[in-house]
């Protein structure tokens, strides 16, 4: 008879493999091994307050953390499997647990798939707390108030606060909400915690900036946003229906939330989960300085993810760290770094971008071209012109030309005017496709000198250039003036 610990470890390992698309062979072997264990007796797995029980025995170990997180994410309190479960039904269970939650809960989803011998119990709502004397919250050091108004619990308290956020008994009402949030945390119900916290944050926004009542709300938020709550909420940013509220709550947790999200970003196994965490990080307003240090992480994919993130955030203080990673052996890292530097586009990014434009990979050079644009990139105009003279890849050259158009500075437009001509001292005789790209870039620039050049090219002897110039002028006419 297998021990509960063995069953728990096998179950957790099998779920890990179901979440890894590249581990099909290992997944099959582990799945068969688990089926053999389950053939001997029924098994019940129960998640309770961050612990896993198998047939009533508490099982511990780091290997079970991911399993508990998935059960939490899907709002599952218990899974009961019969002795010798049908392989197809067990397969559906793992497939559903490995997937992201959707509008249907896990039990409904399994029922739709015909998995009628697997019983899933959703985590229930916490019971209302016993009524006890309460006192208003006056400072972060105050003990948590635990009373509920009129015996109605946190939901009734929220309803009263929504009618009047500045009610005379707001402290008591907020205390009831905190108590309910604590109960939800103990019962491992992240959605409930988030519901209470998001409601408080929205009520707080309705109050005047200066005032004692608003300070009470701020204290409540700080009391709820403990490290365990932050970790719990961070996992919800990967669930579409909770993403907005979870991000709003994490913004208030500051640097600690960024730290937790960065850990999740490193560990995220799928593109969709990584994207959810990434998007949340781009909206953090404190603690982002931690990102700079992670550019030295030993794992290539972490450096790539962080480079993409600092580029989205436009973090100029990350430029030196990004510059160091231009010599990274993995091209995927160098591509992300090049794009990040181009998006930052400040004067300090010019020198590392020059290096990126000389990278041996055309894909890296392409990222520079794709990321550059706008007035903040004015200092990059001449480095781009120099790079264009040396660029051998036609696709990269076209994107460099378009980047000059997006910059639109006098230097950039002057270079484009020369490039759009049939021949010249700088670029020599040019193919029509290259000149047509310059015409498109002049349209992007849209300055008076650019428009004047387009008007002249509307009668060009080359059909492709002439058609491109006329189309550009028509497009500019349709656009409203500044």
Quick summary:
It is built from 25 helices and five strands.
Write a structural description:
It is a single chain. The chain is mainly alpha-helical. Among the domains are: 4-122, no CATH class; 149-224, no CATH class; 398-482, Alpha Horseshoe (Leucine-rich Repeat Variant). The protein contains 25 helices and five strands. It has helices spanning 4-18, 24-38, 65-73, 87-98, 106-112, 153-163, 170-186, 190-205, 212-224, 227-236, 243-253, 255-267, 271-281, 290-294, 300-313, 319-324, 331-344, 350-356, 362-371, 381-390, 394-407, 410-420, 432-445, 448-457, 463-478; strands at 43-48, 51-54, 57-59, 76-81, 119-122. The chain has a five-stranded antiparallel sheet with strand order 3-2-1-4-5. The termini are far apart.
Which structural traits does this protein have?
482 residues, mainly alpha, Leucine-rich Repeat Variant, five-stranded antiparallel beta sheet, 60% helix
């Amino acid at each position: 008879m297998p021990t509960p610990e063995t069953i728990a470890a096998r179950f957790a390992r099998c779920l890990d493999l179901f979440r890894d698309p590249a581990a099909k062979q290992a997944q099959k072997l582990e799945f068969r091994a688990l089926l053999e264990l389950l053939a001997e007796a029924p098994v019940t797995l129960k998640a309770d307050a961050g612990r896993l029980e198998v047939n009533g025995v508490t099982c511990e170990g780091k290997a079970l953390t991911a399993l508990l997180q998935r059960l939490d994410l899907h709002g599952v309190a218990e899974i009961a499997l019969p002795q010798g479960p049908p392989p197809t039904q067990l397969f559906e269970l793992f497939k559903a647990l490995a997937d992201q939650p959707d509008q249907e809960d896990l039990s409904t989803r399994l029922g739709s798939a015909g998995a009628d011998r697997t019983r899933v119990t959703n985590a229930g709502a916490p019971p209302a707390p016993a009524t006890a004397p309460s006192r208003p919250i006056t400072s972060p050091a105050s003990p948590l108030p635990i009373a509920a108004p009129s015996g109605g619990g946190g939901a009734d308290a929220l309803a009263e606060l929504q009618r009047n956020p500045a009610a005379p008994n707001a402290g008591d009402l907020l205390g009831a909400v905190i108590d309910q949030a604590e109960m939800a945390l103990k019962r491992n119900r992240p959605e409930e915690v988030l519901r209470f916290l998001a409601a408080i944050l929205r009520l707080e926004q309705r109050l005047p900036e200066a005032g004692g009542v608003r300070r009470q709300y701020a204290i409540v938020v700080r009391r709820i946003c403990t490290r365990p709550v932050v970790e719990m909420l961070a996992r919800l940013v990967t669930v579409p229906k909770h993403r907005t509220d979870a991000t709003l709550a994490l913004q208030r947790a500051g640097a600690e939330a960024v730290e937790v999200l960065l850990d999740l970003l490193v560990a995220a196994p799928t593109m969709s989960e990584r994207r959810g965490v990434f998007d949340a990080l781009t909206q953090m307003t404190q603690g982002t300085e931690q990102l700079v240090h992670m550019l030295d992480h030993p794992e290539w994919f972490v450096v790539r993810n962080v480079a993409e993130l600092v580029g989205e955030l436009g973090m100029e203080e990350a430029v030196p760290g990004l510059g160091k990673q231009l010599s990274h052996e993995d091209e995927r890292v160098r591509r992300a770094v090049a794009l990040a530097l181009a998006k930052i586009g400040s004067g300090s990014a010019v020198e590392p971008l020059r290096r990126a434009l000389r990278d041996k990979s055309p894909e890296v050079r392409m990222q520079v071209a794709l990321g550059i644009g706008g007035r903040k990139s004015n200092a990059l105009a001449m480095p781009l012109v120099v790079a264009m003279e040396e660029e051998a890849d036609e696709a990269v050259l076209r994107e460099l030309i378009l980047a000059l158009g997006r910059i639109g500075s006098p230097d950039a437009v002057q270079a484009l005017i020369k490039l759009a001509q049939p021949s010249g001292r700088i670029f020599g005789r040019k193919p029509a496709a290259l000149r047509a790209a310059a015409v498109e870039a002049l349209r992007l620039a849209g300055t008076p000198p650019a428009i004047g050049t387009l008007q002249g090219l509307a009668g060009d002897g080359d059909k492709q250039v002439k058609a491109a110039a006329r189309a550009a002028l028509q497009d500019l006419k349709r656009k409203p003036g500044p």
